[in-house]
Amino acid sequence: MKDKVNILGVYVDMVGIKQAADRIMQFFNEDKVHKVYTPNSEIIMAAYKDEEFKRLLNGAELLTADGIGVVYAAKILGKPINERAAGYDIACEVLERIRGTSHSVFLFGGKPGVAELAEEKLCEKYPGIRIAGTRNGYFKPEDEQYIVNEINKSGADLLFVCLGAPKQEQWLARNAKRLENIRVAMGIGGSLDVFAGTALRAPDWYCKHGLEWFYRLKKEPWRAKRMLALPKFGFTVLLKGRSGKFPQD
Ligand code: UDP
Which of 13-22, 50-59, 90-99, 226-235 has the weakest average pLDDT? Predict the structure, then answer.
């Protein structure tokens, strides 16, 4: 666990965006589904309180630090991560690397129409990218096998699962074994909305100063309650993170 930091029981890889993309490119060469999740402080707090969710997160082949809270936590715990590695940024880096190659991606999640709009925008932004298929993220349990079949038929080896946490992690826990060609499955929340242009990302200035949460709060004030997880997370890391309960090695 040398290259991971134990944050309240969640083992986060100490990688930035480019290193995460390097790992993902290696995953394509291994004959199994590799799960990639990008927990923020809210997600780690949820896992701290829920053993089953913690187990799902730790079952991933790659877990990156999404958010300034997680980056600070790693520093406090003596295992610094040099930058935030949000799912959206890693996805952009991977798409840039696979465009013009035989790799192809399936876009799964978001409201009806969003994945198709994202496909259109991605084809403009990454000439030569192969989008193997799309599917919205609203379905009944009995539709799951059909969705898996669509993904398998598409021949994609990369899957973006954008259902938000914990739905995307739970979906993959149930279905990863049934995915035949997928080598990398990334749970990347609202990223399809950003690719589609139906949600905006915080301007660079906010991201650079660790204030993306503040921008989101201004734009989506209904998130305030969810965001209380951030200060709670900070206190919990300070109080419990360094106790013997969460050893680093
Ligand atoms: N979503 C979905 N199916 C669901 C619930 C949510 O496809 O049953 C999508 C929703 O449309 C949005 C994304 O999941 O595109 C969640 O976005 P959010 O910003 O809440 O996720 P985060 O990135 O914060 O985890």
Answer: 226-235
Q: Which two tokens stand for residue 225?
A: 């309650």
Q: What is the mean pLDDT of residues 41-49?
A: 95
Q: Whose CA is nearest to atom 5 of ligand 1?
A: 163
- Average confidence (pLDDT) over 230-235: 90
Give a yes or no: residue 7 inside a domain: no
Q: The tokens of 198 are what?
A: 């139906």
Output the pLDDT for position 184.
Answer: 98
Overall average pLDDT of the 145-150 stretch: 98
Number of domains in the chain: 1
Residue 111: Cβ-neighbour burial (10 angstroms; 0-12, 13-18, 19+): middle
Domain of residue 69, residue span:
15-234
Which of 174, 191, 193 most suits a substitution to test ligand 1, by most atoms within 8 Å of the C-beta? 193
Q: Whose CA is nearest to atom 16 of ligand 1?
A: 164
Q: State yes or no: pLDDT of 226 exceeds 80.
A: no
d(CA 142, CA 154): 20
- Give the mean pLDDT of the chain: 94
Instruction: List all residues whose CB is within 6 A of at least one atom of ligand 1.
Output: 109-111, 137-138, 162-165, 167, 189-190, 192-193
**Residues 80, 3: contact at Cβ < 8 Å?**
no
Q: Tell me, yes or no, whether 1 lies in a domain.
A: no
Distance CA 64, CA 57 (A): 11
